[in-house]
Amino acid sequence: MKYVLVTGGVVSGLGKGVTASSIGLLLKACGLRVTSIKIDPYLNTDAGTMSPFEHGEVFVLDDGGEVDLDLGNYERFLDIKLTHDNNITTGKIYQSVIDKERRGDYLGKTVQVVPHITDAIQEWIERAALIPVDGTDGPADVCVIELGGTIGDIESMPFIEALGQFSYRVGSGNFCLIHVSLVPVLKVVGEQKTKPTQHSVRGLRSLGLTPHVLACRSTMVLDENVKRKLSQFCHVPVDSIITLYDVPNIWHIPLLLKDQKAHEAILKVLNLHSIAGGPALEEWTARAEMCDSLHEPVRIAMVGKYMGLSDSYLSVLKALKHASLRCLKKLVVDWVPAGDLEDATAQENPAAHKAAWKLLKGADGILVPGGFGDRGVEGKILASKYARENKVPFLGICLGMQIAVIEFARSVLNLKDANSTEFDTSTKNPCVIFMPEVSKTHMGGTMRLGSRRTYFQVMDCKSAKLYGNKSYIDERHRHRYEVNPHMVSQLENAGLSFTGKDETGQRMEIVELACHPYFIGVQFHPEFKSRPGKPSALFLGRFDGDK
Prior knowledge:
Blueprint: E1 2-8, H1 16-29, E2 34-40, H2 52-55, E3 59-60, E4 66-67, H3 70-78, E5 87-89, H4 90-103, H5 113-129, E6 142-147, H6 157-170, E7 175-182, E8 185-186, E9 191-192, H7 195-206, E10 213-218, H8 224-234, E11 241-245, H9 253-259, H10 262-270, H11 282-293, E12 297-304, H12 314-326, E13 330-337, H13 343-348, H14 350-361, E14 365-368, H15 377-389, E15 394-397, H16 399-411, E16 419-420, E17 430-434, E18 448-456, H17 462-466, E19 472-479, E20 481-483, H18 488-493, E21 496-501, E22 508-513, E23 519-522, H19 537-540
Parallel strand pairs: 1-6, 1-7, 2-5, 2-6, 7-10, 10-11, 12-13, 12-14, 14-15, 15-23, 16-17
Antiparallel strand pairs: 3-4, 8-9, 17-20, 18-19, 18-21, 21-22, 22-23
Helix pairs in contact: 1-3, 1-9, 4-5, 5-6, 15-16
């Protein structure tokens, strides 16, 4: 097994995740099998209980793992299926060590950061790297490891120490370190400054790790004299210094790496030239260039509550991008704060209310994504009602589906107090209820999570046709509440069709309106399995052969 470690320096948010994904794609394009691991130094066991404002979206894996959004990038770029073990956190490591200590596995030894925590980190990496993720048996050729945070962070110190030991343990020909750093350009003088990267590399080397490749984030291509200066002070060959300058879309990043022969530098360090070929990225190149050339817009109104951070809905945005590219349309997402659609906002902030409704009414389609909590719920219900009554294409995901059911019950069945018990525990018409097997006291990892099977109840429906007339599908879930099965017959008699259910027939998975051009709600999250070359069927919203 060969290992590629990606670290970051100077500042956070440089794009280590996209860089690691792009490196993995480049190596895969050279004919190698690639897997990925993300290390998050925070103390949380996983990302499941973290606010989207704090850390972006929670990405859900097939096995139910709630993980960092970077694993979504890995899956999309590499077209693989990762496991919860591919996301290592400080919380997981310490928990595993403490569990061993409680069992007496350390035979009375004093348990310390070195060697017990560092050994646990190395063992986890080796174990996770061997898990097949590409649908074929046996381990991958290369494991790309991304270390979250920035070099120098206190919380990442045990991981740095462990990785330093690990690089020595696996040997120099099996370990390649790529350091992503910032080369800022001062507007006053227009000069690319190398000092931040010099200090970052010096800090990395003082901790026992020496970079083989420098990936320098900058607004423009690095000058040759800047590369020579970095080479001299950071002890990295000039040919192994890569510029990651600003590009129109992230699909260009693997192409930047390829054009600068990053793969050759990595293959040389790992002694893989004999089994790797040249990178075959023709399809990827065509997709990146096509994305830049699109002009005809398609406007999608995204109605949610996490409007201040687009990473909160990252997979939804990517799925929309995949689908719009297949349709040769330029995606324009109009962010509509759900609360601004509500009547209360019309009194408190008439300008915001007017602007939100203008965006909603100008959209080609309306999407209500998943979420938790009651803030903005009434606004989402109004958005669903507008889409239903005005025949505007609508897709509701998770909470978005539940919202559509509540709105239908209120407007069509005239059940004015219809609601979810998540928002109103005393409602007399609970359309959405708490799932019986879910814990009410523990938040982390207690939802209905991961890949679950949905069976189509009828084949003559839009969703079944979109999925290629399959009798069932497997999609990923993340929810605590579900449509009340005792209200299903009442809703169906009024015209709402539950076309997809779980294996028991009691859990509603897909809802449609037959009399509407496109009105679909799903309890699962189709965005998590969308890929650049294979858009999610529900986001694409057209049948094979449609133009």
